[in-house]
């Protein structure tokens, strides 16, 4: 048996591999860059070896440094995780030359399937249904436009060696095809060191459904059901689930068998995923094959009861698969939400900085009616770097059915305390609340269709607004009670906490009377509505459960700052002020502070590096004209002019690092 594994990766997936290796009694070796010197995977591994500077090209993508680390640690095998070198056939070849076991597929399979152009040709030869497209290489932007016209818009422009949504663009016309070709080419070169691009037909209203396969070195290959991955943003998966709410048994079986046929065509072993686009009539088309462990593998593990990392290790060691196709189970339903370091209120732009609070919900085991699992690679006090993928962790829930899994996920998201950086927790909560999601009516255009103007938070219903006001009033009363009980006051001068208050929240005022008892409180609003509230909240608690009339068991995050009470639940984020009636009347007369005028400035929307500036001082620009590119977390972000104007000042240079809202240029 393999005795020591070096994990050629970082973050969440490195921690995931370490966990299974420890359960199997196998020693682990972490590698790390300058930026990851204090990372969680470095702390958890038995050994850790420094491999270079922060940019991945100088560390995690450097084959020779990884091989040197394997030799230094005397590791028997390497697990590449996902991303970085996980699908690099040159890396697989190099390990084989050194006699090092790769916990992954053979190089020939990586070479065939990792190249999307070659893989589509092989898929067609193996009898797998494929999407119409141009499988040859594309010379330049003009050639891309010509091909796109021949296929017919819309088209998908993709990096041949891509993955994880990098190097992908949808083009609806010639201009977008030309621009998308160059942007995809740049991203592909930056992320994968391979800038080859191909184009295929974009299937309208598609679902993204993938089949997990597992094969051993003895020729046995099975499929482990499917995963629905249609909730995507910028071609990056956000929410996954297993099984799919759309497939029937006939389609599931056909997709599984085609996935296995494709794997057999390249003598595949280890874990792999065959991705399909499925239309509204359950016609499916091969998209690509990922020759590695997928980010979303936990949902498959939750419904099958299998540890995919353990299977990969045993297969790499030469063991046969311990089960046949007929042994594969499908028990219950699992959901996975990817928590990203990105600000949903700023068009999901990357966010970096220190995690001042990181407290995931409590994980639950197999004996529970519902299960919660959090696969993370960070810790409270750690930093999110600009150099790598923005994923913080993966929150996974399981239930006997889809409705239970969704409800468990809603509660788990509400219970997840994550502070210090912008994150997509409120957005994920908002999706879980939507009727369309709960009905399983998903497509890859879901986010664009449901949030066409971006995410601006969740607006409460009238009942929810009153419930939030009641919670704020209860919290305020508890704070006032504590203040009134401070020792050292003069005799006969103890302050009496009043019962009449006005709660200002959601740009509304809620005059009310509150009566507090041991169980909670009873509140009566000015309109005569009465609400009962139960809670054990005490001053200092940052999260607590509130039962408010019909809205029972609300898990609410509480943050008290001065006279403001911030409440968050279900994607709703509100600031409440609770005042005595006379003070509330005066507060209503106070003028509101207006934000500064930045209409004549181009501000950096995220922490990043300026990679291009297309204008100079004195230039006149038109609406929509490209001004600059900011690169952050391996993604290029084009900044355009929002109005016709003239450049009065350029404040940056190419290569300069900027923080959020730093000035890039000014206009007259």
UniProtKB/TrEMBL annotation:
Domain ATP-grasp: 120-317
Domain Biotin carboxylation: residue ranges: 1-452
BP GO annotations: lipid catabolic process
Domain Lipoyl-binding: 592-668
Stored InterPro entries: ATP-grasp, BC-like_N, Biotin_BS, Biotin_carboxylase_complex, Biotin_carboxylation_dom, Biotin_COase_C, Biotin_lipoyl, CPAse_ATP-bd
CDD domains in UniProt: biotinyl_domain
Catalytic activities: propanoyl-CoA + hydrogencarbonate + ATP = (S)-methylmalonyl-CoA + ADP + phosphate + H(+)
Sorted UniProt keywords: ATP-binding, Biotin, Ligase, Lipid degradation, Lipid metabolism, Magnesium, Manganese, Metal-binding, Nucleotide-binding
Protein name as catalogued: propionyl-CoA carboxylase
């Amino acid at each position: 048996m393999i005795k020591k594994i070096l994990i050629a990766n970082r973050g969440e997936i490195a921690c995931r591999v370490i966990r299974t290796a420890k359960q199997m009694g196998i020693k682990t070796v972490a590698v790390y860059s300058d930026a990851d010197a204090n990372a969680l995977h470095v702390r958890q591994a038995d050994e850790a070896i420094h491999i270079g500077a922060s940019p991945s090209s100088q560390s995690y993508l450097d084959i020779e440094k990884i091989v040197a680390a394997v030799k230094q640690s005397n590791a028997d095998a390497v697990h590449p995780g996902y991303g970085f070198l996980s699908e690099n056939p040159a890396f697989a070849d190099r390990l084989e030359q050194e006699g090092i076991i790769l916990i992954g597929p053979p190089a020939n399979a990586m070479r065939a399937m990792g190249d999307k152009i070659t893989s589509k040709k092989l898929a067609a030869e193996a009898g797998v249904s494929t999407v119409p497209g141009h499988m040859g290489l594309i010379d330049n932007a003009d050639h891309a436009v010509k091909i796109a016209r021949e296929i017919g818009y819309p088209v998908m422009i993709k990096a041949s060696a891509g993955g994880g949504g990098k190097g992908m663009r949808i083009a609806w016309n010639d201009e977008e095809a030309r621009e998308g070709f160059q942007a995809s080419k740049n991203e592909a070169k930056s992320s994968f060191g391979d800038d080859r691009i191909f184009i295929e037909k974009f299937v309208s209203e598609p679902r993204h459904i993938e089949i997990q396969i597992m094969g051993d070195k003895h020729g046995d290959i099975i499929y482990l059901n499917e995963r629905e991955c249609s909730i995507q943003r910028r071609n990056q998966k956000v929410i996954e689930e297993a099984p799919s709410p759309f497939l029937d048994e006939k389609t599931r079986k056909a997709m599984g068998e085609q996935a296995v046929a494709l794997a057999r065509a390249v003598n595949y072993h280890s874990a792999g995923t065959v991705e399909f686009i499925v239309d509204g009539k359950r016609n499916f088309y091969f998209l690509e094959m990922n020759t590695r462990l997928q980010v979303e593998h936990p949902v498959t593990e939750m419904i099958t009861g299998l540890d995919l990392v353990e299977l990969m290790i045993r297969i790499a060691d030469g063991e046969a698969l311990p089960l046949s196709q007929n042994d594969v189970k499908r028990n219950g339903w699992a959901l996975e939400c990817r928590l990203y370091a990105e600000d949903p209120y700023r068009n999901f732009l990357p966010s970096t900085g220190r995690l001042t609070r990181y407290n995931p919900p409590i994980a639950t085991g197999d004996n529970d009616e519902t299960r919660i699992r959090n696969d993370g690679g960070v810790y409270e006090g750690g930093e999110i770097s600009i150099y790598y993928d923005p994923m913080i962790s993966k929150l996974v829930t399981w239930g006997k059915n889809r409705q239970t899994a969704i409800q468990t996920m809603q509660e788990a998201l509400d219970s997840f305390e994550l502070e210090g950086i912008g994150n997509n927790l409120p957005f994920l909560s908002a999706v879980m609340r939507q009727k369309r999601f709960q009905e399983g009516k998903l497509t890859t255009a879901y986010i664009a269709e449901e949030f066409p103007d971006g995410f601006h938070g969740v607006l409460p219903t009238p009942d929810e607004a009153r419930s939030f006001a009641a919670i704020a009033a209860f919290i305020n009363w508890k704070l006032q009670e504590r203040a009134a009980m401070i020792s050292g006051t003069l005799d006969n001068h103890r302050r009496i906490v009043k019962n009449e208050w006005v709660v200002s929240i959601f740009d509304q005022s809620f005059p009310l009377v509150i009566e507090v008892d041991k169980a909670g409180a009873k509140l009566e609003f000015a309109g005569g509505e009465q609400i009962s509230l139960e809670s054990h909240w005490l001053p200092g608690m940052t999260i607590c459960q509130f039962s408010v009339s019909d809205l029972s068991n609300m898990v609410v995050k509480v943050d008290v700052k001065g006279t403001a009470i911030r409440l968050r639940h279900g994607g709703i984020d509100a600031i409440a002020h609770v005042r005595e009636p006379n003070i509330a009347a005066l507060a209503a007369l106070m003028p509101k502070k207006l934000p500064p005028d930045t209409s004549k400035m181009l501000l950096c929307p995220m922490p990043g590096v300026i990679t291009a500036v297309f204008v100079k001082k004195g230039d006149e620009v038109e609406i929509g004209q490209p001004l600059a590119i900011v690169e952050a977390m391996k993604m290029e972000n084009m900044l355009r002019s929002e109005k016709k104007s003239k450049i009065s000042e350029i404040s940056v240079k190419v290569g300069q690092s900027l923080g959020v809202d730093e000035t890039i240029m000014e206009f007259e």
